[in-house]
Amino acid sequence: MTTITGNRLAKIAVAFASALTIAAATACSAGLGGPASSRSAQDGVIRFTFAPDPIWDYMHDTGVIDEWERDTGYSIETSATWDEFGLFAGGHADIISSASFEVPALEEQTQRETVIIGRYNAERSRILVRADDPARSLEDLRGRRLGVFTTVSGTLVWSALVQQMHGMNLVAAGERPSDVDIVVADIQNLSNLLARGEIDACICYPDLSARELRDGSVRALYDGKSSADLFAELSCPGCRS
């Protein structure tokens, strides 16, 4: 477990604010997801959408955001959601916190040229099953119900991993059917649905599955490794995610 001290948290917050400064400069010329004539470039308001994030709360509570807005002349309208991809694709956000591997699909759907700014964290989802399930890998879950919160994000990474490791199709693609029964549900309810037996496995975040992991009703496959851990092992042995 990693402990983030107040000093380190402050450094992360400053780095986050620096990224926003770059974003603001970019928005003036091309916009993140839109041309220079976009609404954000015209009125100095940046619509920033991201998943609920304690670092952002810290920056807001300690005045980092207010100071940044005073220094730059920009104001930030925030929206906290687990569906950043959908809001951006629908034209309701100028900047989002999203995975870099989602960008090609995002540009294809929106027909907009985007800009990637920095790195914030790594993809941390795990494959969870019920504690009494004998499955050892996703290969043992063929034809069973896999809960996901989206068909992009971590699902894209696991799709590539499963194809490489087991020759399976996690999601249907063209004429290739899925080898599992995909069930889309709210990200915060996936591990609960799993524990109750309404799905057989899930692509879940450990922090949102803490209760079920703590009470022992669910467990992680692949020795508890995240998609980022497995990707590093398969693509770059010896590298750390």
UniProtKB/TrEMBL annotation:
Cellular component terms per the entry's GO annotation: periplasmic space
Domain SsuA/THI5-like: 115-214
Family, per entry: Belongs to the bacterial solute-binding protein SsuA/TauA family.
UniProt entry keywords in alphabetical sequence: Signal
Localization (cell): Periplasm
Name of this protein: Nitrate ABC transporter substrate-binding protein
Pfam short name (any one): NMT1
Coiled-coil parts of chain: none
